[in-house]
Structures are given as C-alpha cells and as structure tokens.
Amino acid sequence: MIKIKEKFPLKSYNSLLINKKARYFCEIDSLEDCKEVLEFIKLKGLKTLILGEGTNIVLTKDFSGLVIKNNIKGISNDGNKVFLGAGENWHQSVLWTLNNDLFGLENLALIPGTVGAAPVQNIGAYGVELSSVMESIEAININNGDIVSLTNEECKFGYRESIFKRKNNSYLITSITLNLHNEQKVSTDYQSLIAYLLKDDIDPEKATPFQVCRAVVSIRNTILPDPQDKPNVGSFFKNLIVTEDIFSNLQKKLKKIPFFKLPHGKYKIPTAYLIEEAGWKGYEENTVSISKDHALVLISSKNSNIEDILSLSSKISEDIKNKYDITLEIEPTVY
After folding, report:
1. Are 175 and 79 in the same domain?
2. Region 182-191 average pLDDT
3. Integer Cα distance of 202 and 55 in angstroms
4. Would you say the pTM of this structure is higher than 0.70?
5. Does residue 88 belong to any structural domain of this protein?
6. Dihedral, 18, 24, 28, 32 alpha carbons, nearest 10
7. CATH for 159
C-alpha cells in the first residue's frame, strides 16, 4: 500500500536543490502501486508530476498536485531485446548491457537520471540518441488509467523531445524495451570523442564499445560536474539545430565555430561555444554560477533560489540573442 505524504519538501529530490514543496507526494514500486495512485488522483482531481532522480527538472513553484517518485525496477533481456524498469538508474543500466555483450548505449554512458526519464527528453550524447535503439515504451495513461505500449514512431521523438514531454505528465512510464546488437560496431563520428580516442592511441574506426564507454565516461567526468557535488541539471540550454543560412551567418561572426553536419541541410552547433565566446563561462552571480569547465552547465548551491537561477539564464539568453541573433531554449523541463 502506498503512503501519501502532504506538504512534502522536494529540495532533496531535484538536483538543483530548489526548495519547493508538493501538496501530495508518494513513491511507487510496482504496477499495483500505480493502480492505487490512479485512484487517489481521480478521487482528488489532481495534476501529476513524475520524478525519477530529479536531474533534469527546474521547479519554479510549489506543486499543487501529486508528485510521484517512480522506483519501478527490473532489468532483463531476451536475445538483443532489453527490458528496463523505469526506476532503474540509467548509467548502471548502460553498464549492465555492456557486461552482457549488448551494444548500442555506450555513447550514452554516465548521463544522470533514471530509465523512465530517458525517453522523455530523448537523451543523446556524442552522436547517438536513445530513439535510435528504442523499440517500445510501456506506460499508463494517467487520464484514463489505460496501460499502453507505444512504438518508437508513436513516441514522436525529436531533438530532446517526445510525446511524453509534449503531453506534460499524461503518461507514467513503467518500462522500456530496447533493441540492441551483439556486433562490435560503434558510433565515433563526434569530434571530441574522436580526439579522446586518438589521444589514447585508439583508432576510432576500430574502437570497441567498451573503449567508447570508457572514453565517454572520462570526457563527461572531466567537463561535467557531478550533481552530487555541484548542484546542476547538466546542459541548461539545448544545442542548436540550424539551417544552412543561419549557420553561414553565425560562421561570419565566429569563424572557428565547431559544427556537426546533419541530414537535410541542417547543422548542429554547440551552444556552449556561443556562451563561452560571449564571456559567460565561469561567471558568478548571487548564489548561481556558470561552470568553469563547461559553459552549458549552470550551477546552483545549497542556498540558491529559483529567482537567481532564472535571472542568470535570462541574462545569458538575452546576451546571445543580441550578439548572435540566436534564441536559446532551456533543455530541462521547467515547472
């Protein structure tokens, strides 16, 4: 039986340590718990907010409904198909697949958060997105209580987007099914990954999934602060996906701007480069700062408040707009 708590503090349940409260809060460990939760939601007519490890969320106010901490576990495989419970830790799940000679997730190692949160943002790193290996997602439609299985196409994945993000907590993800492979083929098209492998005398075209995983973990540990030590949500702004015309205009202002060419004439540009060139890297204001190691990472403190966080992010956005005529988008989910 689930335990519903009232006026519950969420500071330790979000990685920015924002001090907001939930009117109601509970934790779920099974489908049976989900049924109880749905009955409570229906009885009270509540809005819902689903939490994993809170590493990709910005709380701007107290939540007037029910916050559900999803702890549903489970990890197994049937051949190349891998089944992961939504409450499993994402990085530990990646390591499990590698230890079982199932490949395809190595570029996504060390991304903080849970399995259930991963498809919401369609997490991606070093040239790979989760959607490339996603087969289906099992979830509960909170609006009517139906248990559904959504195909990759039905999830409507985009760059850091999905139907789960657009529908705003209409689905409670219970598990995901991935289609991995046994071949030692890897994706090493990303420039920083190539550079790291070459530094270790590894031919990127011959790298193993284990070598790619170790490289990704090492790179991330070098440039991205651990949320446990320095409160953050990883990349605060999305990287840019722009047309050739916009890219050409940017290149006139920033001749050395790095880029990754995408299909259909699009270009992916690291937003961190623009923020660093604009002079914000390492900047501190009140209780918030921009990481000295990675300009996309906004770091709060135990004493930070949401006003300081949003103020600094707004100033950065306005400056980038004025200097480069580019509109930045916040990557984490904002409530």
Report:
1. yes
2. 90
3. 32
4. yes
5. yes
6. -160
7. 3.30.465.10
